[in-house]
């Protein structure tokens, strides 16, 4: 028995020694995902970014991820575990990891942290997010061109500014084509719940929607659209294989370039704490191929994308009115980032109110 | 041909004691096969899973942090289950406890002194107890099934939490994100070690387990729980009230669960959020049964289950074993524990025809 313990101890020592040796010449990159990597949406795209890092740097990096980490008390432990495992930079990819990330970062000043979609930073904590609303403006334009019933069904996860901003941007895009368009919104209070998402999709179709838009993470709404013969959009990832005849396009989260640049910065020693909020211009948002639509609609969509990318068009350009008619931005101006980040009101033309 | 479970006349005492050990050995063997089929070194995988988290003071603390709420809740549930009251709604009582306990730091953030934390704990426990009182009342008054009512109330509690962190208790400086303000320092559970996450909740868990253990073996109440649980009719003759027992079991269990809720929020989390529990209330049911409805057993069961979570994360971080494999491994562990326990008390018989059954009936 004693021999067995001795052997185990030797193995353990050897293990830690070899880990230590690896850490010296490799940059270690850790990821925390809120969903499973197979969600085909949010977490899947972050994992694509992780794979892009591996592809780019090869032997010079070692990446690790922990998936399906609940945003409650477990998050801090997992993040700290990654820090203790010798990771040089850790990406925490969900809003609910904000405070845990900051707590761990305070304990590990030499480790760099990158928190997605949050607003609190520290010397070793950066934040990053993507201007997905740019894509939603294009979805709005396409929907307005393609709908026959003049009714769009919209499935929202939870009414945080990110989602409300998406709805507004969609509506502004739609109104640029057809000011009379109606949008019906269902909140499901979850980011990933294929059952609820599908139920909401069916309910919206029954209420006359012939195009579905979702701001939730699974492909379920698109699958329902395919079953019921209506049109829809992919979310977070190109979901064309779920609905080859029904996906018009998809807003694709694209973290590859950003992740590579941040890891590069760690390698070069030039990493600084900062906030990045990029859209088409920084390659953080891509549009999937425009399919299942007439050529002129696809052409319009591509033009809008190019205009937003070049800065010629801003989805939130004035004049913009709130529901009650108050003017928020004058003609010729655009809404500032601060207002966009805290958005909790609907633009004129949307019925109902933002749930409190 | 069919299989039949038959109760053994006298289950072996030695085997009863050895059952958990046997279960762990079988788990390790199956785990080793699974890991090698997946192409991992089984020795190394099991080492990372089960041994490494126990060697490092940091992960030992984390183990206790993870186990404390599970133990605290499971201890309360043992009273319920022993007395035949099927409280499945601990998750909801946990949530209500957390909400009630958070009233002070969120609504009166300027009220800061040493009284805050004890008041929070008391409010959390009372909140949990009152919420657990609802299914008890419904059971006594209308003979409703407490499994259903307690479970359904869980969703009420979770939606209530969701509502208040998005609405009235939203952090005024939080850009509309669904989170409460962070608790001030007087409202945070004191750490047991400087810089670590292990907090005073661990002490509460151990004390609760000991108190309930003594209650079971040394007091009339404990005897009452046993009699009512095992033979309600005999309890009736002895003058014990089944209704009062139901209220007692739900109140105590709800109070302990509510306490766990506020401890978790004031400890590791430090604010109210839409999700404050990775299913503690449900996992604690497993813990209670794994500990064979014995409060001291719940301590070990809670630690074992916590270890399986930490081990699963370690396996992901150190070896890149997927989360699904880690979950499957946890399932295997629970399967063997329950299977061993069952097979010690029952034997499996293969019945080849219906004849025997006819005879037995006759």
Outline of the structure:
The complex is a heterodimer of chains A (about 350) and B (about 350). Chain A is of the alpha/beta class and about 350 residues long.
Characterise this structure.
The complex is a heterodimer of chains A (356) and B (362). By secondary structure, chain A is of the alpha/beta class. Chain A has 11 helices and 14 strands. Chain A has helices at residues 2-25, 42-57, 74-84, 98-107, 133-146, 161-175, 194-206, 220-228, 256-268, 295-310, 337-341; strands at 27-32, 61-66, 89-92, 112-116, 125-130, 151-156, 182-187, 211-215, 231-236, 247-253, 275-278, 285-287, 320-321, 327-329. Chain A is globular. By secondary structure, chain B is mainly α. Chain B is built from 15 helices and 2 strands. A two-stranded antiparallel ribbon of chain B has the order 1-2. Residues 358-362 of chain B have low confidence and may be disordered. At the A-B interface, helix 1, strand 2 and helix 3 of A face helix 2, helix 3, helix 11 and helix 13 of B.
């Amino acid at each position: 028995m004693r021999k067995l313990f001795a052997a185990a101890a030797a193995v353990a020592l050897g293990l830690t020694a070899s880990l230590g040796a690896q850490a010296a010449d490799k940059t270690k990159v850790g990821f925390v995902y809120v969903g499973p990597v197979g969600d085909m949406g949010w977490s899947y795209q972050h994992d694509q970014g992780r794979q892009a890092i591996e592809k780019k740097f090869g032997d010079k990096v070692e990446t690790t991820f922990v998936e399906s980490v609940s945003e409650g008390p477990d998050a801090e432990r997992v993040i700290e575990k990654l820090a203790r495992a010798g990771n040089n930079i850790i990406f925490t990819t969900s809003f609910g990891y904000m405070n845990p990330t900051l707590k761990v970062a305070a304990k590990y000043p030499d480790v760099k942290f990158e928190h997605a979609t949050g607003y609190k930073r520290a010397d070793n904590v950066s934040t990053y997010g993507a201007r997905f609303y740019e894509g939603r403006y294009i979805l709005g334009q396409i929907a307005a061109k393609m709908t026959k019933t003049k009714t769009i069904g919209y499935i929202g996860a939870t009414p945080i500014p990110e989602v409300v901003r998406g709805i507004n941007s969609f509506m502004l895009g739609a109104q640029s084509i057809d000011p009379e368009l109606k949008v019906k919104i269902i909140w499901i209070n979850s980011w990933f719940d294929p059952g609820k998402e599908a139920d909401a999709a069916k309910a919206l179709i029954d209420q006359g929607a012939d195009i579905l838009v979702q701001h939730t993470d699974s492909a379920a709404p698109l699958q329902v659209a395919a079953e019921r013969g209506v049109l829809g959009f992919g979310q977070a990832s190109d979901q064309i294989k779920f609905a080859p005849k029904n996906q018009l396009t998809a807003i694709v989260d694209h973290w590859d370039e950003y992740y590579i640049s941040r890891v590069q910065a760690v390698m070069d020693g030039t990493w600084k704490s900062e906030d990045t909020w990029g859209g088409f211009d920084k390659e953080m948002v891509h549009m999937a191929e425009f399919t299942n639509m007439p050529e002129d609609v696809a052409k319009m969509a591509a033009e809008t994308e190019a205009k937003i990318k070049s800065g010629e068009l801003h989805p939130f350009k004035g004049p913009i009115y709130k529901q009650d008619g108050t003017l928020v931005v004058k003609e010729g101006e655009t809404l500032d980032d601060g207002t966009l980040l805290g958005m909790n009101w609907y633009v004129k033309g949307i019925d109902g109110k933002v749930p409190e | 041909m069919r299989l039949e479970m038959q109760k053994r006349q006298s289950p072996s005492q030695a085997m009863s004691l050895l059952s958990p050990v046997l279960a762990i050995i079988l788990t390790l063997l199956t785990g080793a096969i699974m890991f090698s089929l997946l192409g991992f070194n089984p020795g190394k995988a099991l080492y990372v899973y089960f041994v490494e988290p126990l060697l490092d003071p940091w992960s030992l603390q984390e183990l206790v942090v993870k186990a404390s709420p599970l133990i605290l809740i499971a201890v309360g549930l043992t009273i319920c289950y022993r007395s035949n009251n099927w409280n499945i709604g601990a998750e909801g009582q946990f949530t209500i406890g957390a909400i009630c306990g958070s009233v002070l730091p969120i609504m009166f953030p300027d009220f800061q002194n040493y009284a805050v934390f004890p008041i929070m704990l008391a409010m959390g426990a009372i909140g949990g107890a009152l919420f657990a009182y609802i299914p008890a009342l419904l059971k006594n008054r209308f003979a409703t099934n407490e499994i259903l009512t307690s479970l359904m109330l869980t969703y009420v509690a979770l939606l209530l939490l969701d509502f208040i962190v998005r609405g009235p208790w939203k952090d005024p400086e939080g850009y509309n994100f669904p989170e409460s303000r962070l608790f001030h320092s007087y409202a945070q559970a004191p750490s047991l070690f400087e810089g670590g996450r292990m907090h005073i909740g661990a002490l509460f868990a151990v004390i609760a387990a000991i108190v309930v253990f003594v209650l079971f073996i040394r007091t009339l109440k404990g005897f009452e729980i046993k009699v009512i649980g095992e033979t309600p009719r005999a309890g009736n003759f002895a003058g014990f009230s089944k209704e009062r027992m139901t209220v007692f079991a739900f109140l105590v269990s709800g109070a302990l669960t509510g306490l766990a809720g506020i401890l978790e929020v004031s400890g590791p989390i430090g604010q109210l959020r839409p999700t404050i529990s990775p299913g503690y209330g449900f996992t604690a049911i497993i813990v209670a049964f794994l500990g064979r409805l014995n409060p001291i057993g719940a301590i070990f069961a809670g630690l074992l289950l916590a270890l399986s979570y930490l081990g699963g994360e370690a396996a992901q971080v150190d070896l890149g074993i997927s989360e699904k494999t880690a979950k499957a491994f946890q399932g295997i562990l629970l399967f063997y524990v329950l299977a061993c326990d069952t097979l010690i008390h029952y034997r499996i018989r293969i019945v080849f025809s219906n004849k025997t059954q006819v005879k037995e009936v006759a």
